[in-house]
């Protein structure tokens, strides 16, 4: 049993590192200085030491960490306002030496590599310290692996802000916003993964999906900027016929997202925004009712979700899938019915529906608020995707 525990722990620590190495070894993503990336990884591990010492000192005095299904206000304040900002700041500090020493030598993609390496090194040591001394459990390695992947993808957001800044400044609106969102995402992911039961671990998947997709979009954006600046393609290829796309939609990019969210010539229709919010709310209700009816036919016990039992994963996954898909369908319906020329109106209606849902959950079931916050970015993205598909068919 001890050998299996060690093997699972090593696998949980090595899997995120192997994934990063696999992505970074591709030609377009290969850093200009692999030694700097390795050194940043080591600095990230070193930065974890003062973070752990500081957090353990604070928890020893205040004792805010509690594992369980209850709401602990001190634990929430500690996670969101102390631990997450401290850890994200130390990750930035670990990425700073390589970024500063190689100013003028690295490419924009290198800034993302430094940010990912710093976060990966930090989370690798943090996960190792968490796994050491724990009794055998299958859920603990899964928790550390998912949170490590999420933290690495979230760190690429402020790495992207560094890469797109031509002057290499650590600051400004883009960097500060990306850093704050990364810290908040890490706080939510850590809370649902470690401060809730095993079934709540599924709520880290939406965070990981959104963080990964946005990281991929950011990587594509800096690569496109580099290609446009260097003009690597020869002139004779301009007259070659373009190959037909397999999909009717182009791969997502920041430029395409800005164009989709830009206001059209006509003013915003508050009627369709309000009606879209009602449509989204009604679609959520209908999909959840349908999921409950389907689950009863399949023999699911929905009461096990409140107890966080081992058989709560299947009904929770069914309800979460139904709720998320409802945003996709609602976004498409609103865009088609309103004949919208941009995604802005369906996006605003989806955002209002999400805020209303979180407020109602806060009044009825405060325990579910953190899980709803974890799923909110993916729900908003699916609503925008549905509206985008509705626009493409118009």
Question: What does this 3D model show about the protein?
Answer:
The structure is a single chain. With 394 residues, the chain is mainly alpha-helical. The protein folds into 2 domains: 229 residues, no CATH class; 144 residues, no CATH class. 75% of the residues lie in helices and 0% in strands. The chain is globular, with a radius of gyration of 22 Å. About 7% of the residues have low confidence.
Can you give keywords for this protein?
about 400 residues, transmembrane helix, about 75% helix, 2 domains, 13 helices, mainly alpha
The total of beta strands comes to 0
Percent of residues in helical segments? over 70%
- Unreliable runs: 64-70, 232-250
Strand content: under 5%
Mean pLDDT over the residues: 78
Radius of gyration: 22 Å
What is the count of DSSP helices, taking H or I runs of 4+ residues? 13
Tally of separate domains:
2
Termini Cα gap: 59 Å
| Order of H and E elements | HHHHHHHHHHHHH
How does the major sheet shape up?
Answer: none
Transmembrane segments: 111-132, 144-162, 174-193, 199-219, 270-293, 313-335, 347-365, 371-391
GO molecular function, one term: peptidase activity
Protein name: Protease PrsW
Organism: Polyangium fumosum
Task: Map the helices and strands.
Elements: H1 2-24, H2 34-62, H3 73-101, H4 108-131, H5 139-164, H6 172-194, H7 204-230, H8 254-261, H9 270-298, H10 304-307, H11 313-338, H12 344-364, H13 369-393
Helix pairs in contact: 1-4, 1-5, 2-3, 2-4, 3-4, 3-6, 4-5, 5-6, 5-7, 6-13, 7-13, 9-11, 9-12, 11-12, 11-13, 12-13
């Amino acid at each position: 049993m001890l050998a299996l525990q060690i093997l699972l722990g090593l696998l949980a620590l090595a899997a995120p590192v192997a994934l990063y190495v696999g992505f970074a070894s591709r030609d377009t993503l290969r850093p200009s200085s692999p030694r700097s990336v390795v050194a940043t990884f080591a600095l990230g591990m070193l930065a974890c030491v003062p973070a752990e010492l500081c957090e353990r000192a604070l928890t020893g005095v205040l004792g805010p960490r509690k594992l369980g299904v209850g709401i602990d206000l001190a634990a929430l304040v500690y996670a969101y306002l102390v631990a997450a900002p401290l850890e994200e700041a130390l990750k930035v500090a670990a990425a700073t030496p390589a970024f500063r020493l190689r100013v003028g030598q690295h490419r924009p993609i290198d800034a993302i590599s430094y940010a990912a390496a710093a976060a990966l090194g930090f989370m690798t040591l943090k996960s190792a310290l968490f796994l050491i001394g724990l009794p055998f459990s299958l859920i603990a390695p899964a928790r550390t692996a998912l949170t490590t992947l999420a933290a690495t993808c979230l760190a690429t957001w402020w790495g992207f802000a560094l890469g797109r800044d031509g002057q290499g400044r650590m600051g400004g609106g883009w960097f500060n916003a990306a850093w704050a969102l990364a810290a908040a995402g890490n706080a939510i992911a850590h809370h649902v993964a470690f401060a809730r039961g095993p079934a709540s671990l599924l709520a880290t998947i939406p965070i990981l999906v959104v963080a990964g997709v946005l990281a991929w979009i950011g990587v594509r954006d800096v690569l496109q900027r580099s290609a446009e600046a260097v003009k690597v393609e020869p002139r004779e290829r301009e007259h070659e016929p373009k190959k037909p796309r397999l999909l009717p939609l182009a791969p997502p990019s920041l430029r395409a997202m800005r164009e989709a969210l830009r206001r059209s010539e006509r003013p915003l229709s508050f009627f369709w925004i309000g009606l879209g919010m009602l449509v989204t709310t009604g679609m959520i209700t209908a999909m959840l009712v349908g999921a409950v009816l389907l689950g009863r036919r399949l023999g699911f016990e929905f009461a096990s979700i409140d107890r966080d039992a081992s058989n709560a994963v299947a009904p929770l996954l069914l309800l979460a899938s139904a709720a998320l898909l409802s945003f996709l369908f609602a976004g498409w319906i609103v865009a088609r019915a309103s004949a919208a020329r941009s995604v802005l109106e369906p996006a605003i209606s989806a955002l209002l529906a999400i805020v209303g849902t979180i407020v109602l959950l806060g009044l009825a079931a405060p325990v579910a608020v953190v899980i709803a916050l974890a799923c909110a970015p993916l729900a908003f993205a699916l609503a925008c995707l549905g509206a985008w598909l509705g626009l493409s068919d118009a």
